[in-house]
């Protein structure tokens, strides 16, 4: 198994990761274009950690415009094996009020104007997204939370909308009625691309609001989100720090096979592959395509 390197994708209000030592900033070039920002690579305890703010420092990139492929590609190039997504979310559950950390285990993708695959014409692949979250990584997050005395709610479905506008009341009530737990604008296609890149993925959904369905709460506004994220910044940093300090030296095989997702995924035989695309896949799929 390769050395475990922990990636952290910071969401709204999370543009830095306190507690990293020996930090260097790396602008890794990607054939998929410009990532949101440089990677900050450092150490927390014995673990190498690579941090990227997915909206860029200064929150310059909107959810629809994030180059998710480049972000995941540079994480892969940096050797990231396990990726934790820190994400601000609206909640559809009374029992998950603002301030709650939810370790979701499912996603529903309602985005419609994003590049959502590394593969395509000249190299077709279909990975499984049945279990998008790495159960062991999630368990480690739960253990880190317990060790730090941070309450988490385990399990739930994150619906990813296109945005950038928040939902209408009808949409919010529909998602609530469908039993979804939280809503955000970024974890799809991020989780799909992480799977294609064989990076184990887990999300900490940090509830910031009740979207607009709750009769006793005003419809969400950006100021509410930022206020709650700021209030929870220390908790999020402690959670990641503990996770990193207790992380194994070697990547643990993922029960959801996220780290071997390409074993059975590629449809196009070598003689039919587009060489240009194969070259771009050097980091993401080098393990199976040959570097
Ligand atoms: C600032 S509110 C909407 C914004 O916040 C969430 O971002 P992230 O998932 O990166 O924490 C949500 O997905 C929207 O992008
Ligand atoms: N209610 C909401 N809808 C979509 N994205 C969000 N991010 C934080 N709160 C959100």
UniProtKB/TrEMBL annotation:
<keyword id="KW-0660">Purine salvage</keyword>
<feature type="binding site">
    <location>
        <position position="12"/>
    </location>
    <ligand>
        <name>phosphate</name>
    </ligand>
</feature>
<dbReference type="Pfam" id="PF01048">
    <property type="entry name" value="PNP_UDP_1"/>
</dbReference>
<dbReference type="InterPro" id="IPR000845">
    <property type="entry name" value="Nucleoside_phosphorylase_d"/>
</dbReference>
<dbReference type="InterPro" id="IPR010044">
    <property type="entry name" value="MTAP"/>
</dbReference>
<feature type="binding site">
    <location>
        <begin position="87"/>
        <end position="88"/>
    </location>
    <ligand>
        <name>phosphate</name>
    </ligand>
</feature>
<dbReference type="GO" id="GO:0006166">
    <property type="term" value="P:purine ribonucleoside salvage"/>
</dbReference>
<keyword id="KW-0328">Glycosyltransferase</keyword>
<protein>
    <recommendedName>
        <fullName>S-methyl-5'-thioadenosine phosphorylase</fullName>
        <ecNumber>2.4.2.28</ecNumber>
    </recommendedName>
</protein>
<comment type="pathway">
    <text>Amino-acid biosynthesis; L-methionine biosynthesis via salvage pathway; S-methyl-5-thio-alpha-D-ribose 1-phosphate from S-methyl-5'-thioadenosine (phosphorylase route): step 1/1.</text>
</comment>
<keyword id="KW-0808">Transferase</keyword>
<dbReference type="GO" id="GO:0017061">
    <property type="term" value="F:S-methyl-5-thioadenosine phosphorylase activity"/>
</dbReference>
<feature type="binding site">
    <location>
        <begin position="209"/>
        <end position="211"/>
    </location>
    <ligand>
        <name>substrate</name>
    </ligand>
</feature>
<comment type="similarity">
    <text>Belongs to the PNP/MTAP phosphorylase family. MTAP subfamily.</text>
</comment>
<dbReference type="GO" id="GO:0019509">
    <property type="term" value="P:L-methionine salvage from methylthioadenosine"/>
</dbReference>
<comment type="subunit">
    <text>Homohexamer. Dimer of a homotrimer.</text>
</comment>
<comment type="function">
    <text>Catalyzes the reversible phosphorylation of S-methyl-5'-thioadenosine (MTA) to adenine and 5-methylthioribose-1-phosphate. Involved in the breakdown of MTA, a major by-product of polyamine biosynthesis. Responsible for the first step in the methionine salvage pathway after MTA has been generated from S-adenosylmethionine. Has broad substrate specificity with 6-aminopurine nucleosides as preferred substrates.</text>
</comment>
<feature type="site" description="Important for substrate specificity">
    <location>
        <position position="167"/>
    </location>
</feature>
<feature type="domain" description="Nucleoside phosphorylase">
    <location>
        <begin position="6"/>
        <end position="244"/>
    </location>
</feature>
<feature type="binding site">
    <location>
        <position position="185"/>
    </location>
    <ligand>
        <name>substrate</name>
    </ligand>
</feature>
<feature type="binding site">
    <location>
        <begin position="54"/>
        <end position="55"/>
    </location>
    <ligand>
        <name>phosphate</name>
    </ligand>
</feature>
<dbReference type="InterPro" id="IPR035994">
    <property type="entry name" value="Nucleoside_phosphorylase_sf"/>
</dbReference>
<feature type="site" description="Important for substrate specificity">
    <location>
        <position position="222"/>
    </location>
</feature>
<dbReference type="GO" id="GO:0005829">
    <property type="term" value="C:cytosol"/>
</dbReference>
<feature type="binding site">
    <location>
        <position position="186"/>
    </location>
    <ligand>
        <name>phosphate</name>
    </ligand>
</feature>
């Amino acid at each position: 198994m390769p050395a475990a390197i922990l990636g952290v994708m910071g969401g709204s209000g999370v543009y830095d990761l306190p507690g990293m030592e020996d930090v260097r900033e790396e602008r890794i070039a990607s054939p998929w274009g410009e990532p949101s920002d440089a990677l900050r690579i450092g150490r927390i305890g014995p673990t190498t950690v690579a941090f990227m703010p997915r909206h860029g420092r200064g929150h310059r990139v909107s959810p629809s415009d994030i180059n998710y492929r480049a972000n995941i590609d540079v994480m892969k190039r940096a050797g990231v094996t396990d990726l934790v997504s820190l994400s601000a979310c609206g909640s559809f559950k009374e029992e998950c009020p603002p301030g709650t950390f939810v370790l979701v285990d499912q996603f529903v993708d309602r985005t419609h104007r994003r590049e959502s695959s590394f593969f395509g014409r000249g190299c077709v692949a279909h990975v499984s997204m049945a279990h998008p979250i790495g159960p062991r990584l999630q368990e480690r997050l739960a253990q880190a939370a317990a060790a730090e005395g941070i309450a988490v709610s385990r399990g739930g479905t994150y619906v990813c909308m296109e945005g950038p506008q928040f939902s209408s009341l009808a949409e919010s009530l529909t998602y609530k009625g469908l039993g979804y737990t939280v809503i955000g604008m970024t974890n799809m296609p991020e989780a799909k691309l992480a799977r294609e890149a064989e990076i184990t993925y887990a999300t900490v959904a940090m509830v910031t609001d009740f979207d607009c369905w709750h009769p006793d709460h005003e419809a969400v506004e950006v100021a509410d989100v930022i206020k709650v994220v700021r209030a929870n910044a220390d908790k999020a940093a402690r959670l990641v720090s503990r996770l990193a300090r207790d992380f194994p030296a070697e990547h643990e095989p993922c029960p959801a096979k996220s780290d071997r997702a390409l074993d059975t995924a590629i449809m196009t035989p070598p003689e039919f592959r587009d060489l240009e695309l194969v070259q771009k896949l050097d980091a993401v799929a080098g393990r199976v395509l040959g570097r």
